[in-house]
Amino acid sequence: MARVGVFVCYCGANIGDYVDVPKVVEEIKKIKEVRFAFDYKYMCSDPGQTTIKDAIIREKLTSVVVAACSPRMHEKTFRKALLEAGMNPYLLEVANIREHSSWVHQKDKVAATKKAVDLIRMAVSKSIANQQLHEISVPVTKRALVIGGGIAGIQAALDIADAHIPVLLVERSPSIGGRMAQLDETFPTLDCSQCIMTPKMVDAASHPFIELMTYSEVIELQGFVGNYKAKIKRKASYVKFDACTGCGACWQKCPVKVDNEFNFGQGKRKAIYTPFAQAVPNKPVIDAIHCTMLTKGKCGICEKVCEKGAIDYKMTDEVIEREIGAVVVATGYDLWDPKPYEEYGVGRYKDVITSLEFERMVSAGGPTNGLPIRPSDGEVPKTVVFLKCIGSRDESKGISYCSKICCMYTAKHVMLLHHKVHDSHSFVFYMDIRANGKGYEEFVKRAQVDTASTYLRGRVSKIYQKGKKLIVQGEDAQIGQQVQIEADLVVLANAIVPQKDAPELARMLGISYDRYGFLSEAHPKLRPVETTKAGVYLAGCCQAPKDIPESVSQASAAAAKVMGLFASDRLKKDPMVSTVLIENCSGCQNCIPACPYGAITTEEIPIMRGSKDLRTVAKINEGVCQGCGSCVAICRSSAAMLSGYTDLQLMKEVIAL
Amino acid sequence: MLVLKNLQHNEFLEKVNQKSGSNVLNCYQCGKCVSTCPVSGYMEITPRQVMQYIKLAEDEKLFAANSTWYCLTCSSCSARCPREIEIPRVMEAVRHLAIEANILPDSSKIKSIKKFHDIFISMIKRYGKMFELRLMAEFNLRTGQFFKDIALAPKAIGKGKLKFKSEKIKNLKGLKRLFEMNQKLESEIQNTENASKHESK
Amino acid sequence: MKDKKFTYYPGCSAHGTSEEYEHTLNLVCKSLNIKIEEIPDWNCCGATSAHVMTENLALALPMRNLILAERLENSTMVIPCAACYSRMKETKIRLDEDFSLRTKINSTVDDGDYKGNVAVKSFLQYCFEDIGIEDIKEKVVKPLKDLKVACYYGCLLTRPKNIAQFDSPEYPISMDKIIESLGATAVEYPFKTECCGASFSISNTEIVLDLSSRILDVVKDCGADIIAVGCPLCQSNLDMRQKQIEEKMNRDYKIPVVYFTQLMALAFGYPKSELKLKKHMVNVEKVLASF
Quick count: other Cβ atoms within 10 Å of Cβ A86? Predict the structure, then answer.
């Protein structure tokens, strides 16, 4: 005989103001199987839970219904309460009378109350048919994969490795370092970017628990939390890393010159190259598109000058498979091409450049040895105009968001320019100044007060060439007048955008992304480093624009999540998985392609007990099954069933209504 | 001191939005329009400020300014506005509301600009097509600028650019009716406006 | 090349201040075997004044022309004047989008029911899209070699973007490409679409003098011999008022301003005497002496 306990929550005013809770309890008590009905202001609270536990023992309940908020909120909490009272936690049923009644029917208390009663009645019926289920445990592969070797990826890898967990750090360019390696100095301290990052890069390369794979890309990820299988393509570098010492003889003698993409086309690199002087690993790769040996069979100079015999023109791409327990995605950002701003003469005038191009120029290791020059004639600019919000906050260009870091790095550029060219003057056109980090406001003040700069609130409408100068036409909104400046150089703070292939990567990993291509976090406030896929975490700008301290914090947070995941030897899993009723299974195998996780295979069983003849039935691996229900939907024989949501349980709900 | 009213129901903003097909509230005051506008230096209230005054329901202030009368409808501003606001249509909406309210800036320049438009429209009503010579002559006469373009006119006439004879369309009657019907439409709208004003009182 | 035909809306200045535009347009179409069918009894589109002062009248006047055009059964109506073209195109777009507006305005127009089945294009757009550069090049018998032309588009041939739906609002290239197909050099300069002062020519002349002088300054700097335009108002502002600007602002331009159709006709082999060059205020003969 079923003995159901029903616990109705007021949820403060959330339910109480729109549903007549005492009436609900009164109606529910009329159901034959309900032995105990109780209401309380906050069922999830300590006293609330104690009431449930006491009632289970005292009333010898066989199942429990909690009528409250969405099970997504507190199902776990209440299941724990049941467990503590000695009842199987899966005998709990949650009736959502908040999101499904009080919150959506605020104008009709009578109807909302009736609906709440109906929802609880359905839950009572289902709970009676609930079965005792037991958690499944799966093993955990204690190795992490970090995708992306920028500062976020490096930090995450170091933190995980310091916990003595092996990490595979994969980076697709020839060196780790990412965007931070392209910076000259960082705000608000004006630390030399390379100087603070290189020690971390070297640590990452030499850490006993980090396996560094540069010039490699993750091409496949299968499996589920704790049990992933990753395929990584190691691109052919044509240089044997074990033999190479990084002496540089090859790239010095290489005759082929290619536009240097690290410096945005300013200056050249060779066909065999390291992307920058402090590259880690300091081993070159050969660019197969431009190397004349690989494309035309001519040259071979690098092979001749290499004393270690490290060149191997016959090398091919390699695919490596690894078992992984968790993934941290730290693939970083790209910069928006400002070409759509035709009125600014982008691409038309050489002296209109982007912020990162300017950054490369002022970098000591950059194409002009740290001196800002005009690309058109090589002269040192004296009047420089900085434009902020190029692409960002511009719906006509499809980017509604703010890129967060441009206000700060523009102030930095103003200061750097002043240090390098003492008689220069900067103009900054802005809509707002966003300086909300620690020490940021003070930093901007330095740019505005201590250097020769003029900040103008207003946007620029047009830039055109007059003789050697660029005429910049804008508005100074504070005085309400059109202004015109004869500039030597114009620097555009272009928007931060996701990497072009971020959506592709997301689909490969099975995680979501937003309309811009930024990877989606599980909850923007409370779960900023997790994704909706268990075991896959996010760090850095691949999730949203942010500065270095935030990227580093997020990376450490993601590492902490990985460490938490790996803290036990086995992972507990919800038992709401599919099972096969082999008596009903016809062996049609339609469920196998329906399963997105590859959890279903077949097995041979005797036709009848004792018979030697066999027949094929489906077999579900409960460790892999994620309980999506696709097989249940497709099965024509009602053989596939989802534990906790069997046809019988669902029919009971329907009949109760 | 500008005392701001409770702007919960900003009728002026709603009318401008409805007439212009844009939402003035989208303007985030970036100033690109002022920077672009070839005549913003001549305007008493710049386009950006016009947006702000609309948000503050300061209709009479805008009606009394020369801004909407100086707008060339060149659409350079709206081509560049990051919030894609149709600024020329907003200026036009304000101007039309000023005409409806019969409030004009107190300047002879604006009065002569308005006279020009009135004469132009009367030419269309009279002939169905433009009679350029008469347009210039009447304008000079009615604005008291008898010697305006005195050097230019004979040269233009000499080159055959300004004709002495007017061209009329055949269906003048139909055109006259078109004018009358549209006049009726305008007064209908005015009457509903006034009626709803009385109701709300 | 197939025989083409379009419905033609001349605009009020076609028989007055921009006679040379219509005349050479006809010559160009003759060379290209294009038949022109003028709308019978068309009226003034309302130009600037109608929309400045009124809402409904400003739509009714163009609507009458659109209805009359639909009677002629050609698929496209071509308009040489940029302002008329802009008014008609905007009216068409708004009437096509908004059914109640269409009904309301149509009730004031006696000449029939608006169907919306005629496309509206400027003559520049028609040349670029429907005739095409290759066909134009074919007809060139007198290449305008070494002639440096600054193509001035003004405001309404490519703006507003959602009305004109043609070429670029910042750096258009259609006229430049046509000029180049005639053998001339289209000069690059940054003021192709800056406003000349438009309809303020009579009522607010000082603005026209200011704005047009900005354009003439930049054109002079870029070394052009001649300016090509596609709008009667632009032509009159830059040409008729050029001397006035020179006097008031102490400048020296002497840059002739012609319609791009005049250059096309010249390149197609028509003698200069037939191009109505004498209609221009700034002397054109000198610059075109070698052709």
Answer: 9
Number of structural domains chain C divides into: 2
Long-range contacts of C129-132 (CB under 8 A, 24+ apart): C129/C166, C130/C4, C130/C6, C130/C76, C131/C4, C131/C32, C131/C34
pLDDT tens column, A347-371: 999 999 999 999 999 999 899 999 9
Q: Which among C25, C22, C6 is positioned nearest to C14, based on CA atoms?
A: C22
What is the domain-level CATH number for residue A214? 3.50.50.60
**Host domain of residue A629:** 578-656
Across the A:C interface, residue pairs with CB atoms under 8 Å apart total 14
pLDDT, residue B197, reads 65
Does a structural domain hold residue C226?
A: yes
pLDDT of residue B5: 82
Chain C interface includes B122 (CB < 8 A):
no
Q: Are strands A144-147 and C4-8 parallel, antiparallel or unpaired?
A: unpaired
Closest C-alpha among A406, A496, A473, A400 to residue A444: A406
Q: Report the relative pairing of strands A318-324 and A227-234 from DSSP bridges.
A: antiparallel
**Tokens (6 digits) for C6:** 């379009």
Across the interface, do B82 and A482 touch by the CB < 8 Å criterion? no
Q: Which ipTM score applies to this complex?
A: 0.92
**In the beta sheet, which residues pair with residue A465?**
A470
Closest partner residue to B177 (CB to CB) among C110, C193, C281 is C110
Q: Residue A596 class from Cβ within 10 Å (0-12 exposed, 13-18 middle, 19+ buried)?
A: exposed
Let me know if residue A180 belongs to a domain: yes
pLDDT band at B199 (very low <50, low <70, confident <90, very high): low
Residue C18 sits in which domain range? Answer: 4-124
Shared-domain flag, residues A97 and A109: yes
State the total domains in chain A.
4
Please tell me whether residues A559 and A623 are part of one structural domain: no
**Cβ atoms of B162 and B132 closer than 8 Å:** yes
Same-domain check for residues A436 and A454 = yes
Please name the residues in contact with C100: beta carbons below 8 A apart, sequence gap of 6 or more.
none
A51: domain CATH number is 3.40.50
Q: How far apart are CA A84 and CA A28, in angstroms?
A: 25
A203-231 pLDDT per residue, tens: 999 999 999 999 999 999 988 899 999 99
Which amino acid belongs to residue A609?
A: R
In a domain, C217, yes or no: yes
Residue A345 to residue C221, Cβ atoms within 8 A: no
Q: At B150, is the pLDDT very low, low, confident or very high (cuts 50, 70, 90)?
A: confident
Q: Which of C44, C161, C199 to mutate to test the interface with B (most CBs of B within 10 A)?
A: C44
Boundary-marking domain end, from A538, A565, A592: A565
Of the candidates A396, A474, A477, the beta carbon closest to that of B82 is on A396
C47 and B109: CB-CB below 8 Å?
A: no
Q: Is residue C289 part of a domain?
A: no
pLDDT band at B200; cut points 50, 70, 90: low
On whether residue C136 sits in a domain, the answer given is: no
The answer to whether residue A615 neighbours chain B at the CB level (below 8 Å) is no
Could you give the CA distance from residue A630 to residue A41 in angstroms, rounded to a whole number?
39
In degrees and rounded to multiples of 5, residue A513 shows phi and psi of -140, 160
Asked whether residue A570 is domain-assigned, the answer is no
Judge if A487 and A529 occupy the same domain.
Answer: no
Q: DSSP string spanning B56-113?
A: TT-HHHHHTSSHHHH-----HHHHH-TT---HHHHHHHHHHHHHHHT---S-HHHHHH
Sheet of strand C119-122, all strands in order from the earlier edge strand to the far edge: C34-38, C4-8, C76-79, C119-122
Distance in angstroms (rounded) separating the CA atoms of residues A453 and A186:
19
Cβ-Cβ contacts under 8 Å, B163 against chain C: 15-16
Q: Nearest residue of B to residue C156 by CA position? A: B74
* Alpha helices in A60-133, H assignment, sequence order: 71-84, 109-129
Touching check for B188 and chain C: CB below 8 Å?
no
